[in-house]
Amino acid sequence: MPTAADHLARWQHYVKNPDHQALWDMLHPDAVFESPVVHTPQRGRETVFKYLASADKVLGGEGFRYTGQWLNDTSAIIEFENVINGIKVNGIDMISWNDAGQIVHFKVMVRPLKAIQMVHQMMGEMLQKMASQPA
């Protein structure tokens, strides 16, 4: 049976090689996403997909890297960093999987405040772009 380490390896492969079909397949239909800038949880595969697909464009890229990880049986906390527009972004992804290896909960925390404000603006712009594209 796959472990949290296996699921995390699958996630990290996606981060390095974004494939939106692979992301869609990783998400449980009732997945929940918690953003550092939206006060209510975002629910459902389609919504979570839009947030995570936008985040790989905003936060990802050449300088993005995971710097630490903590695992238990069904979840992981992975610390990340990148420099975007001259601002060092530091944060964590908290990911939980079900027995089938699908992401059921994904929470992101970002620091410092200047980074949160920039990510908030950039994510808003990316989500708008995604909303205007045909499905």
Task: Describe, in plain words, how this protein is organized in 3D.
The chain is an alpha+beta fold and 135 residues long. The chain has one domain: Roll (Nuclear Transport Factor 2, Chain: A), CATH 3.10.450.50. Helices cover 40% and strands 35% of the residues. It contains four helices and six strands, in the order ααββαββββα. Helix 3 packs across helix 4. The longest helix is centred in the last third of the chain and has 20 residues. It is globular and about 40 Å long.
Key words describing this protein structure:
single chain, alpha+beta, Nuclear Transport Factor 2, Chain: A, 6-stranded mixed β-sheet, globular
